[in-house]
Amino acid sequence: MSFKVLVTRRVPGPALDELCSRYAVTLNPEDRDLDSAELDSLSRGCSGILSMLSDRIDREFIAGHPELRVVSNYAVGYNNIDLAAAKEHGLIVTHTPGVLTEATADLAWALIVSACRRVPEADRYTREGRFQGWAPEMFLGQDIHGRTLGVVGLGRIGLAVARRAVGFGMKILYWGRSAHPEAEASLGARRVELDDLLRESDIVSLHVPLTPATTRLIDRRRLGLLKPTAVLINTARGPVLDEAALVEALREHRIFAAGLDVYEAEPQLHPGLAELPNVVLLPHLGSATLATRSRMTRLAVDNLVEALEGRAPAHPVPLP
Length: 320
Ligand code: 8YV
Known about the structure:
single chain, alpha/beta
């Protein structure tokens, strides 16, 4: 049976072509997000949507599209979807966990190394022709090896980040809803209270999903607990962190540096953030490798097809 399906952005990999040959697919031809009016009109009569995390699938949208049976989100996160409304309307929601874990952990480490060793700052300096010779105090950074990594949220991605820290001879602290005896045994990770993790860690990396409980988890008070030499990394979701308070902390050198892949009002940056030299800024690249994004396409397409064909998709989002 053929279904009407909307794909809100072109995604890499052969699975998209398979979807297009199977169903009546409307594919956003432009390299930009759909605005809410476009999303609304292009979704008319669709049974399925392959959505991006930038598409707001809120209560009003869900209520306005009663024919919709499945939203297959092209991301592990699903904070763009109103799950309570999905449940009320019998809508199936799926996501793409697992396949992007390692790529996102790699990117968190790219930010750790870049922020600790001031890589982008030094790169700019060199290409601007300002390198006049080696100097003993030029671009002094923070050691990574042998220091303490604090992982906030030891889920799939947090654990992959922690595993990499073993190669750097780091001590690992973690904070999370539940204990992880396996990580404690194999990585020597120690579970601590969040405030203690912030006080004791040299590098703090955020890996919690965005929920009401984690919104502004790292607020002004908690930022104040970090060491003046600390480096803070966020590859999770922007609103987990108070970006205005972070700008102040960086400007006043109350922490050493930060590395961000996500922002509170993405794609906007908090005023002043881009002017600071002690922050590394990336445009939400967590899973951005061709292989990973192609695997995400495979998963998102399979989830969509399974749900539309009346079978259980492999990666449903549990509804509240
Ligand atoms: C992406 C992500 O970079 O999966 C997520 O939740 O944030 C990352 O994989 C992006 O979401 C791709 O849509």
